[in-house]
Amino acid sequence: MGGMPAPRPTTVPLLTAPTAAGKSALALELARESGLEIVSADAFTVYRGLDIGTAKPTPAEREAVPHHLLDVADVSENYDVARYVQEAEAAIAGVLERGRVPLVVGGTTFYLAALLRGLPLTPPADPGVRAAVEAELAQRGLDALLADIAATDPAEAARMERNPRRVVRATEVYRRTGQYPGSFGNRPPRFQYAVTAFTRPGPELEARMAARVGAMFAAGWAGEAAWLASQLDPETLPRPTVWQALGYREAWAVSTGQLGEAEATARVVLASRQYAKRQLTAMRSQLGAQVLTPQDAAKQVREHLSAAYKLSVN
């Protein structure tokens, strides 16, 4: 027995924050000082070719710190939460098997909640019923389908976060089974997580959003959106998953001359504020997180790394 290795800690550190709050920068700082590997939890950095508008880590940052779950799908694929959980858990296991420590980082709370709770045991999709619901979405609109869900289960409607693909899926499952996806339970998660969430004061966060959107347009975001439109028609309903990425429709409108850059920036910042509000609500309700300041969040992660993994931190 004396020769057996000590069991690895089962609690994986997880860092989340609203868009533009600086979670990637803090994650890089923590990873560099403690030798961590980052496992991304972002629904859109998984796509190859979406670099500017998703604020994907730069090649230099990825050279300095190993990153997982970036550039794992083509934009024509519908990358979903089931695939994310499977690939994220495999990545986490691989990091631990190499004797390293993973840090899960991202703002897609739907993915993070699935990591924490385990994947839903929802029945597979029925293409025929789904097609009928998609046609209804195109005819009646998102708000009408959401109202249908809210009439029978307001909590389920809120959980949709106005995501058309989730609304279609929930409606399809309900019409087949009389239950929404959240009613089917979950398989046990493979790992346990120590969740750390943070944000910044509203005016500071909005200023960071505006600065980031401006920098994205300066870096060529409109051209990236035009490339995406050349791969997938943005007017298709329901829209391909990638067109749900924040700001790409506005950036595409700039590329076609339908919007000026200033107006597009204002619209994206407004959408970012609304998205950040939904993220914060989900962090508290779905992840059970206390939302800290950036400084307290850094301290909390460092203390966890020291206690759970005996990592020395600065």
From TrEMBL:
Task: State which gene encodes it.
Answer: miaA
> Which top class of enzyme applies to this chain?
transferase
Q: Which domain of life is it from?
A: Bacteria
Q: What is this protein called?
A: tRNA dimethylallyltransferase
Query: Which SUPFAM superfamilies does the UniProt entry name for this protein?
Result: P-loop containing nucleoside triphosphate hydrolases
Binding sites annotated in the UniProt record for substrate:
19-24
Q: Where is this site: Interaction with substrate tRNA?
A: 108, 130
Which residues of this UniProt protein bind ATP?
17-24
Q: Which residues form the signal peptide?
A: none
Native source species: Deinococcus marmoris
Per UniProt, the keywords (alphabetical) are: ATP-binding, Magnesium, Nucleotide-binding, Transferase, tRNA processing
> Which Gene Ontology biological process is one annotated for this entry?
tRNA modification
UniProt GO molecular function? ATP binding; tRNA dimethylallyltransferase activity
What this chain does, per the entry, is described as:
Catalyzes the transfer of a dimethylallyl group onto the adenine at position 37 in tRNAs that read codons beginning with uridine, leading to the formation of N6-(dimethylallyl)adenosine (i(6)A).
Name the cofactor(s).
Mg(2+)
What reaction does this enzyme carry out catalytically? adenosine(37) in tRNA + dimethylallyl diphosphate = N(6)-dimethylallyladenosine(37) in tRNA + diphosphate
How it assembles, according to the record, is: Monomer.
Q: EC number(s) for this protein?
A: 2.5.1.75
Q: What's this protein's family per the entry? A: Belongs to the IPP transferase family.
